[in-house]
Design goal:
Rossmann fold, 11 strands, 341 residues, 12 helices, 2 domains, alpha/beta, 42% helix, binds 6-O-phosphono-beta-D-fructofuranose
Length: 341
């Protein structure tokens, strides 16, 4: 009997369990044994895996996170780890690996595939939605819905207290979550990495809005937003560490200083990644899992499952990781119609 291995790597996100469940069901229907590898690449380095069956993967559709666990380990930093992966892959009799992950996990998968260590099929996940080669990576819809609900809640308190509230959302180098939750939540300002924002101009708009009688405002800022006049290093110094997360505080301080309005900040953080997936993410996760097994069956290794024009397909992993998918500028134009009104 042939064996498929499956691992989930990098940041977790809602919808991962739908993929695992689908791979197990479809894999078994196609006559494969499915081994669940624990904690991403770490499980292959440590040979930590177990055979999955439908009983172990039932009742997990609505659960956030991943039943396999995950880690951010990068085996490419250590040749011994790469060698261990190759050995354990062979020793455990895996014929093909399904790697579910974002840019980093798929970059590792591509390297190991290219260099003959493993045969791999990729499945794209990312709350950031920044992977090229696919219109959608599951997890994003859930994150946008959570962020939107938070914006709604923050709206009511901002309005009661006549405050500006700055809401920091995730997204790393792209502004997808900020843009979509900002539109859905009626943000007055959206700050993203793709467009450098001028806080002086933003504050003039906020002042004008307040003069027109709206005594509160909602500013959504992506964690990687670019601000005119401040280098990322400078911003990092002000927020005392250099990693994603924290820019909201900086923006809130600047806005309060420049407008004089009482300003608060709310950092949504990992809330955006936790909990039950939306129906959409469960459906896409299920479809991606089924398609991944099809690709294994067809021996189309080095491919990543993708969605194009809302249809399932596949692309070279190499292509998907080459370039980051930045926001849709037309959508930003639409969002800007509503800024500071
Ligand atoms: O890439 C997904 C993501 O959630 C980013 O939006 C965020 O910057 C990062 O992961 C946070 O990662 P960690 O869980 O390691 O703090």
């Amino acid at each position: 009997m042939k064996k498929i291995g499956i691992l989930t790597g990098g940041a977790d996100c809602p919808g991962l369990n739908s993929v695992i469940r689908a791979v197990v069901r479809k894999g078994m229907l196609e006559g494969y044994v499915v081994a669940g590898i624990k904690n991403g690449w770490e499980g292959l380095i440590e040979n930590d895996m177990k055979i999955l069956d439908p009983r172990m993967t039932s009742g997990i559709l609505d659960k956030g996170g991943t039943i396999l666990g995950t880690s951010r380990i990068d085996p490419l930093e250590d040749p011994n780890k790469v060698a261990a992966i190759g050995e354990n892959y062979k020793r455990s009799g895996i014929d093909a690996l399904i790697a579910v992950g974002g840019e980093k996990t798929l970059t590792i998968a591509q390297y190991l595939h290219e260099n003959g260590y493993i045969k791999v099929v990729g499945v794209p996940k990312s709350i950031d939605n920044a992977l090229s080669g696919t219109e959608y990576a599951f997890g994003f819809d859930t994150a946008v819905n959570i962020a939107t609900e938070c914006i709604d809640r923050l709206h009511t308190t901002a309005e009661s207290h006549h405050r500006i509230i700055v809401i920091e959302v995730m997204g790393q180098h792209t502004g997808w979550i900020a843009l979509e939750s900002g539109i859905a939540g009626g943000a007055d300002v959206i700050l993203i990495p793709e467009i450098e924002s001028d806080l002086d101009a933003v504050c003039l708009d906020l002042n004008a809005r307040h003069r027109r009688g709206k005594t509160f405002s909602i500013v959504v800022v992506a964690e990687g937003a670019r601000i005119k006049g401040f280098s990322p290093q400078e911003i990092a110094k002000r927020i005392s560490h250099y990693r994603f997360g924290g820019i909201g505080e900086f923006v809130a301080e600047e806005i309060e200083k420049k407008t004089g309005y009482e300003t608060r900040v709310s950092v949504l953080g990992h809330i955006q990644r936790g909990g039950a997936p939306t129906a959409y993410d469960r459906i896409i996760g299920t479809q991606f899992g089924i398609k991944a097994v099809d690709l294994v069956k067809e021996q189309r290794f080095g491919q990543m499952v993708s969605l194009k024009n809302n249809k399932l397909g596949s692309v070279d992993i190499e292509k998907a990781i080459k370039k980051r998918k930045t926001i849709d500028m037309d959508l930003f134009e639409i969002a800007s119609v509503f800024f500071a009104h």
